[in-house]
Design goal:
2 domains; 6-stranded mixed β-sheet; elongated; Rossmann fold
């Protein structure tokens, strides 16, 4: 550990001041400051203010004199101070979002259940996949919980929100992966302590289906990239290519390229946004809905008859959610009553947007569910039948 102090060159309250920091931890800094006779009230966020008359005493106690630039660089390098660009904060629709660091072998990931009840055997299969990647898994306290009255929920709203907050703010956790989708994520949005979440360092949230509600909220309030990809329970049943694709995206910062079929020709670029159609439509009107302006909208769904697909799309159109969209990328609409009618409803509602539309992408409630990063730039080339991620999803 090194204690660093810059020159007494900062005027305030009628005298000059220095700043004392540690390159290790706040606990070590507090211990040193106490031994050097600095009062606790002198600590502010990541440093102690040191009056000029105390400078020589603090140096004699072991603090190393450095320039102010080196002092700030040390705080940033050690993660004790974040640049404005690295701060979790709201970012406007259509803007690129903050990219969390990519995962490495040995990193900890948290698995939580913010939505539906989790089958234990399916959870174990998915956990085995994560562990095979060399990741350390931390399970949320209530991941196998059940709501006392509502059987579709994995525990009370308070329990599920608690697990999500604890996972996101734990200093060792580098990713939060939903155990499954289902229903119930919307119920957590007004329970989460967004200031506490924003104070954490950036990490990535992974999931799809009902987790769309959290992706929208985290993008709106925290401005951070999320991964629309397999949950833990679906990871165990995913095809080998989808599992490898998620691993490559999370650990290798892979830039996916997906193939589909042209519905409306053309080429567009924008930030990826969207997710599950029904969840997006249910979000409209809420403070945390993330519109598609300036973006490429990704849509998928499961077990929705054609008339409901039509109704959901109409809701998004009428609400203005599609206003300013640059392109639409359609994933799987699986287990629907009449695929031809669903395709007709999609075409009927999306052609009038007059933007490129690609269909049949391997995204959604299917074994071939390829991970896509939300909040990064992508190029939709409906003429060539490709959706290509342009930015490294994670840094």
């Amino acid at each position: 550990m090194s204690l660093l102090i810059d020159p007494p060159a900062w005027p305030a309250r009628g005298q000059l001041w220095s700043h004392l920091v540690s390159d290790a931890s706040a606990d070590e800094l507090h211990a040193f400051a106490a031994s050097a006779g600095l009062p606790p009230r002198g600590f502010h966020l990541d440093h102690y203010d040191v009056p000029a008359p105390a400078y020589d005493r603090v140096v004699a106690a072991g603090a190393r004199p450095v320039s102010s630039r080196e002092l700030v660089s040390t705080l940033v390098r050690t993660g004790q101070r974040r640049r404005t660009s690295d701060t979790l904060r709201p970012r406007r629709p259509g803007a690129r979002l903050l990219r969390p660091p990519a995962l490495r072998r040995g990193d900890s990931v948290a698995v939580v259940a913010p939505s539906g009840r989790v089958p234990a055997h399916r959870l174990e299969r998915g956990l085995a996949v994560l562990r095979s990647w060399g990741l350390v898994v931390r399970l949320g306290e209530h991941v196998l919980g059940a709501h006392p009255r509502l059987h579709h929920l994995a525990g009370s709203d308070a329990d599920r929100a608690h697990d999500l907050e604890e996972a996101w703010t734990h200093p060792d956790v580098r990713a939060v992966i939903a155990a499954r989708g289902g229903s119930g994520a919307h119920r957590l949005l007004d329970r989460l302590d967004w200031d506490r979440l924003a104070a954490a360092t950036a990490r990535v949230l992974v999931g799809f289906s009902d987790i769309t509600a959290l992706h929208e909220a985290f993008a709106s309030r925290l401005g951070v990239v999320g991964v629309h990809g397999p949950t833990v329970t679906s990871l165990g049943a995913a095809d080998a290519e989808s599992a490898l694709a998620l691993r490559a995206l999370l650990m290798g910062a892979d830039r996916p390229v997906l193939g589909g079929t042209t519905l409306v020709p053309g080429v567009a670029e924008g930030v990826l946004v969207g997710g599950n159609l029904a969840v997006l439509a249910a979000s409209v009107g809420g403070a945390l809905s993330r519109p598609a302006a300036g973006g490429i909208a990704v849509l998928e769904d499961v077990a929705e008859p054609a008339f409901r697909v039509d109704r959901l799309l109409t809701q998004l159109v009428r609400s203005g959610w599609f206003d300013g969209v640059r392109g639409v990328a359609l994933g799987a609409f699986s287990e629907c009553d009449d695929p031809a009618q669903v395709d007709a409803a999609l075409a009927e509602r999306l052609r009038p947007l007059e933007v490129p539309v690609l269909t049949g992408l391997p995204v959604g409630h299917v074994a071939a569910n390829r991970a896509l990063p939300l909040g990064v730039r992508a190029r939709l080339d409906a003429d060539a039948g490709t959706l290509s991620v342009l930015d490294r999803p994670l840094r």
